[in-house]
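[job 4471] stage=fold_predict status=RUNNING
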Amino acid sequence: MRKFFTLSDLDVKGKRVLVRVDFNVPLDKKTNEITDDKRIRESLPTIKYLVERDAKVILCSHLGRPDGKVVDSLRMDKVAVRLGKLLNKNIKKINGCVGKDVKDEISKMNNGDVVVLENLRFHPEEEANDKNFSKQLADLAELYVNDAFGTCHRAHASTYGVTKHLKSAAGFLVEKELNVMGKAIENPKKPFIGILGGVKISDKIKIIENLLLKVDKLLLGGAMIFTFYRAQGKNVGNSKIDEEGIELAKKLLQNKKIVLPVDVIIADKFDANANSKVVDANNIPNDWMGLDIGPETIKNYKEILKNAKTVVWNGPLGVFEFDKFSNGTKEIAKFLSALKAVTIVGGGDSAAAVEKFGYAGKLTHVSTGGGASLEFFEGKKLPGIQALEESCKRFR
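[job 4471] inference complete, writing structure tokens
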């Protein structure tokens, strides 16, 4: 049972509603244009709901890492323009986040209007969860909505501090993320299979431990497998090793739920055009490095996955950015897209991979939150969600 308000609990007509969205979109390094507007599109249901109910919608977000200083290339103008196109509506961008000038602009809003505030992280107080800055943000509005799942693992002024001052609710995106992922982790249909990729075991230890308590099998890929091989005493050539993770790997290997690749695709250098070949996991030559799971492993993993009723996947299985070493990730994504099961992909890189290969729309859920979904899978309480729960008690 969720312990926070949702949009339907708010009476928004004529009210100023501050909405924390995640408009941290990727920008082209040369042209500074938006290269993928998925995060903006994900917030549209909440924004449209509020507009249709005559709210005055005040959107706030960060963009990039300005580190508490004004960086012209990270202003929110281009985001406001793209949002306007998606909503087919005139969107005003305000040149600030807090203060009298911002309040004056907001006082001119009509019901159904939408404005976008300047980049929150131009202010060091945002990431510091500064009390005064939180209060200034709250003073702009009468209600607050968090629809930025991607930042829910951060206790910042706009995700945490502000909720102390306003009745606060989860937006549709946050609600969807929590419902789908929460159900999968707390009450999964069995068999429940986890797939885990990525580089360092030490980074993923919490998620490995938490998933092992819940899954029937945990299929591994990505560079972390070479640390497991090293823990088994195998030669891994020039493959990437997480030295800190070797002892952890030895402990984890005692758990029979863990499944490792039986073959790998190796390369003579880390390069898109490197020479490559398939070898047995026991036979990696000295000067070669593993960059993807092999065909026999793909077959094994499909065999395990075919009867699954719930699948949670975090982290790519190979260097999918290089075509030669993308097959493992691509084949598993394709297989999951046709599976009659709840299929959930969480984490920035794995989400980017299934998007790249065109399978995102065929999976049950692709999480918008990289770090947030990771911490959720680790079993942690997310500060942004805790803040909503506390606000719910305060404003009941």
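[job 4471] summary: The chain has two domains: 5-173+381-394, 190-340.
[job 4471] exit 0
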